[in-house]
Write a structure and sequence with these properties.
Layout (H helix, E strand, L loop, with lengths): L1 H7 L2 H29 L5 H49 L12 H19 L10 H18 L5 H22 L5 H24 L6 H20 L12 H13 L2
Helix pairs in contact: 2-7, 2-8, 3-6, 3-7, 3-8, 3-9, 4-5, 4-9, 5-6
């Protein structure tokens, strides 16, 4: 449920909601301690400060953990894009290594690869596919043409077929890292629960220490909200400010277009 809420909120909205929750938690903690202090001044600042420090350390650990998951997924998307571009390029080029007399199906392979590059760019940009040009349909076209090449050249085009197979495998791999490698709902829930508890404790500590509401508390809330927004951005590929550049695939599309006879 929380993960769905994260997806529905725009990034600025996600930042604002996080900031408001954290700031409210600080204020609740401050008022709670102020009321207790007005009734009985028995609580000492050093023990409270030690407990707040421990809670903030746990929050820092959870932030690092969630950021690590999102950053690893971002890196995996970059690697899979690079692998897919290289596999498509080599599959296209290796058609020239097939004996000319048995190269009858190479135009079909190359047409399918050019169309597939266009499809991958549409998919990365969230654009719909035209009829007959979905990833599965183009993979089927590519597989059929590559198998025909293999039948015509038994045992002599294994390298070519290996790269075509890699293109097919990377279709699923890129989909997996793009759409399924996300921070689990439970991690988001734990992060926000611990954050609210930690910032409530920060506000509580401020009142116990006898300080007024410091602007530093708002600064800490802003910093936390910004970090959480970055984690959410990394966890939502193709939507925010941080995304894997599709320039390698664009360059490949242009290069294949120029090589087309």
């Amino acid at each position: 449920m929380l993960h769905r809420l994260v997806e529905l909120l725009p990034f600025i909205g996600f930042f604002i909601v996080t900031f408001l929750l954290v700031a409210a938690a600080e204020e609740v903690g401050y008022r709670w301690a102020s009321r207790r202090k007005a009734k009985e001044d028995t609580e000492k600042e050093p023990p409270v400060g030690a407990m707040v420090g421990a809670t903030l350390a746990l929050l820092a650990f959870l932030l690092t953990f969630n950021f690590g998951i999102a950053a690893d997924a971002y890196h995996a998307r970059r690697i899979s894009l690079s692998d897919e571009v290289n596999s498509i390029r080599l599959s296209y080029m290796l058609c020239d290594a097939i004996p000319e007399a048995t190269r009858t199906h190479c135009p079909e392979v190359r047409d399918a690869l050019r169309a597939y590059v266009d499809q991958r760019l549409r998919w990365a940009n969230g654009q719909p596919d035209p009829k007959g040009a979905t990833a599965n349909e183009l993979i089927a076209r590519l597989s059929k043409a590559a198998m025909a090449v293999g039948v015509e050249n038994p045992g002599s085009v294994d390298v070519f077929l290996g790269y075509v197979t890699r293109v097919i495998a990377l279709n699923e791999e890129r989909t997996d890292v793009q759409e399924r490698s996300r921070i689990a709902n439970g991690f988001w829930v734990i992060l926000f629960v611990v954050a609210l508890l930690a910032f409530t404790a920060v506000g509580y500590h401020g009142a116990v220490a006898g300080t007024s509401r410091s602007p530093v508390m708002l600064g800490v809330a802003l910093a936390f909200s910004a970090v959480v927004m970055v984690i959410g951005d990394l966890d939502r590929p193709g939507e925010g400010f941080i995304d894997v550049s599709q320039q390698p695939m664009i360059d490949l599309r242009d290069a294949l277009a120029k090589s087309q006879p």
